[in-house]
What does this fold into?
Amino acid sequence: MSNVRQALAEQLAEAVFQALAEDLTRQERALLIVSGGSTPVPFFKALAAKPLPWSRIDITLADERWVDEQSSDSNAKLVRENLLQGAAANANFVPLTSDASTPEEGVEEVAKRTASLSWPASVVILGMGGDGHTASLFPDSLELGLALSTDEPLVAVRTPSQPQPRITFSAGRLHQAHRHILHITGDDKRSVLANAMNGDDVRKLPIRAFLSCPLAIYWAP
Ligand SMILES: O=C(O)[C@H](O)[C@@H](O)[C@H](O)[C@H](O)COP(=O)(O)O
It folds into this structure.
């Protein structure tokens, strides 16, 4: 981990800490939505060390692979091992998978489970892939149009470029959050983001769906 990426993770953790603490002065509970992937790990560790009243915080994921929670591809496993540590283990974490064998069969149950969270979310932290996807809104996903337009909170997605089916919060549900943050690193993602900012086709670079939320960008080389 380069020093500058570590510093970025720590600055992001401080910003998320402040946002959650501020919302908790006005409301009993606050919801944080995080993303999986490799980028957030140092952020998760830095946030877990913050002195928050963790038992008043709900945490869920922007999206998840439809895999067992023990799988190394599970975002829930990533969150449990890196964020829900120490005092942060007292947070109420709600995963996005069920015992159903497909996300299409399980999506309704997960929607019921997540309905009890403290919506609207205080903060959504998004990642972005080299193809411009964010959450599980992939350019080649068969359900991209649905995920961008539905009023439903969650969508089961099938994506030819991805090995597993997934479940994702819809763009509409993620839009409702009070704050949106994009956490990315590296020159390749900077170029993808620049293309998204210059282009106009959300289906080619789905991160575009969040550019005017407004979106705070946390980037480091
Ligand atoms: O993988 C996931 O769980 C998320 O669906 C995805 O949107 C992720 O945020 C990007 O793919 C970036 O991943 P990296 O941080 O690993 O580059």
Summary: The beta strands are 30-34, 57-61, 63-65, 92-94, 123-126, 154-157, 166-169, 179-185, 215-220. The CA atoms of residues 156 and 167 lie 4 Å apart.
